[in-house]
Amino acid sequence: MRKVVLPLLMSLVGCMPGNMSDTASRGFVQDTVAPTGLPPLKVFTSTQPTRPTRSNRDIARDFLELSFNLESGRELPALTRFEHPISVRLTGAPPASLLPDLTRLIYRMKTEAGLNVSLTRASDANITVQAVSRAEIRKSLPSAACFVVPNISDISEYKAARRTAKTNWALLRNREKLAIFVPNDASPQEVRDCLHEELAQAIGPLNDLYRLPDSVFNDDNIHTVLTGFDMLILRAYYAPELRTGMSKRQVAAVLPTVLARLNPAGENISPQRTAPTPRSYITAVQTALGPGSSMPQRRKAAQKALDISRAFGWQDHRRAFAHYAMGRIASQTNSAEALKQFQAADQFYARTPNTGLHRAYIASQLASHALSQGNGVRALSLVNPAIHVARRHENAALLSTLMLLRAEALELTGRSSEARHVRLDSLGWARYGFGSDWAVRAKMREIAALSPTRG
Q1: Under CATH, to which class is 280-454 assigned?
Q2: Does residue 35 surpass a pLDDT of 50?
Q3: 3-state SS, one letter per residue, for 374-401
């Protein structure tokens, strides 16, 4: 399942695979001042990807598991990829932000991953990105916000083909035609996040791994745009040494040479050999933070994920994420317990490399608690560094949330003029991150209500 876990209490389920058992599933925008008086929507115009810092031996293991397994755990018999230039077209009723975000993503894939991919208007494009309503997507896959399937080009074809060999990734032997379905009535960031995950999956690996701290190929949904690690994986996927039809053993034989050429720095790093993530942990996390479960079921599942983490002796981001899930659930009824869990999550994230973005999410929770206690100085110490992290990772929802928290903290410390400026600056990012004006204003009210000075 893709993008089931949503940080910052977002309500929509994200990208997931179609027919999960055997299928794989989430610039500048011209805009004017909103009718309600909100500032213009802001967008990110530059990318700052960080090169992976893990051993090539670990990355080779990641590559093989990403490429030769489905998210259900089923093994794939052979590598499949496009063996010719990849054309992508946009259809449906796309929102204004979608084409610029798609154009920028394709540019990144060309320049960072070396892919021969381009936009087209031709009806015979290899990949069709169709923008449809969330209701249409849910009619096809009730839990999904976006998904990708092979061998069709329109969502109207999916119902009849859903449980057939035609759309079954496990039976696919050549990639020629695929369709990605994204919502046209969600926030610009949600649409972009779906686009990044699903286009990467349409072109490259089909699996997700919870053990990856620096990748969108991870169901924790911390990373929302393709990372430096992801671009390396895509570049390796289309290395000339590989080809469609190769077995896992054949790929494993040439992969060390491929990675040594593409990522020479990884040759001198010692492997960590992170333990596999059991299916029981994945199921527990999805139940705790995914859709369709009652609060008692969520609480029980989160506790199970934490128990599994402890039983395996994990000290990495998976242990931290279990604490984060516990904190999210506890925040509904027990703020003291929630604080304890978020602090524990932060401690484990601090021990794990490449988790700066994870800690920025935790910082938003810890700063919220500090604000509720009237401690503006503490809140500022938490959000100030996290703001820079959120901006670098192009997460407008998190960025605007942190900026609104900073504005309230500035009010508490007597810096009202600066607070007004920060609050106003946050709203353009909030429009990209949360979408509709009512959602932006609801987020403003939610954060303002944390401050004891607001009554």
Answers
A1: mainly alpha
A2: no
A3: CCHHHHHHHHHHHHHHHHHCCCHHHHHH
